[in-house]
Amino acid sequence: MRFASRLNDQTPAALLLIGPALFGLLLFVLLPFLFALLTAFTNLRLGSPLPLEFVELKQFTRIFNDPAFLQALANNLLFALVVVPLQTALALGLALLLNQGLRGTTIYRTLFFMPVVFPMSLVAVVWILIFAPGPSGMMNSLLDFLSFGQWQPRDFLRDPLLALPAIMLLSIWQGAGFQMVILLAGLQAIPQELDEAAALDGAGRWQRFLHVTLPQLRNPLIFVMLITTILAFRLFDQVQIMTRGGPDNATTTVMYEMVESVFTRQQVARASAMTAVFFLLVLGLTWLQRRLVRQTREVE
């Protein structure tokens, strides 16, 4: 009774504190999504002389019969499957390295985090120069040096096989610093006594990492993987600046297709249908990740 009374007393203050955030979510997230969901069942198109009509599921049928949209979905899934584990592994390696207390750790931490601070437009332009075609391009020159002159210069951003991997490489480099900071904070929160006790019991460095460090990093790892997955499906800036979805839709994404539909082709209803599918896809993947993590905890 006393707890319930205290809870009732604190409810007005709690509502007052969370009110602005809830209002912002309602105004800028929930209402626009509901409007997009309603628009997806119409034939709304900017500048069209046709009257607004309710077309049921025709927009969803059209996008799932559109090769460009299906290719965008496949590119998004491939991008997430490659970038999320590689970026997380790179960030974990950097965090472990910086957690060793080496000289100049602050400088290295700043250098690794700097790409996160830079605007993506600037980062993309720099990497366009790195991927420049011909033997004078930095990436071609590096690969030529590493292969002892056997590498043939390639135009990475105009090659259907290399364009998406090139964007993946940029994204891994640019986002690893954000994950590194979170994982480094998680490493520094692990009690040193746990590692020392495992060492006294005869556990090697690899065993201590698997059975002490990783279990203690479970929550930070789950957080960074969820955030990175969501960001991977929001891939747009790099594609817009570097390839514009090409060549032959090799780098197009769902976000890019949505923007092209609504702003270039004025197909508002089509873009709204893509938005609904995109939202449900990200929501489903996030739920699946959390479900798998929960099952792993129950098994352990």
What percentage of amino acids are in beta strands?
under 5%
Helix content: over 70%
DSSP, total strands: 0
CATH topology: MetI-like fold
Kindly report how far apart the N and C termini lie. 36 Å
* CA-based gyration radius: 24 Å
Q: Give me the strand/helix succession.
A: HHHHHHHHHHHHH
| Largest sheet properties | none
CATH class: Mainly Alpha
Give the low-confidence spans. Answer: none
Backbone shape: globular
- The DSSP helix count reads 13
Structural overview:
- Helix 3 (67-98) packs antiparallel against helix 10 (218-233).
- The mean pLDDT is 85.
- This protein has helices at 2-39, 58-64, 67-98, 105-117, 120-130, 138-146, 163-188, 192-200, 205-216, 218-233, 237-242, 254-264, 268-299.
- The chain has one domain (60-299): MetI-like (MetI-like fold, Orthogonal Bundle).
- 74% of the residues lie in helices and 0% in strands.
- The protein is mainly α and 300 residues long.
- It contains 13 helices and no strands.
Write the layout of secondary structure elements.
Elements: H1 2-39, H2 58-64, H3 67-98, H4 105-117, H5 120-130, H6 138-146, H7 163-188, H8 192-200, H9 205-216, H10 218-233, H11 237-242, H12 254-264, H13 268-299
Helix pairs in contact: 1-13, 2-13, 3-7, 3-10, 4-7, 7-10, 8-9, 10-13, 12-13
What labels describe this entry?
300 residues; mainly alpha; MetI-like fold; 74% helix; globular
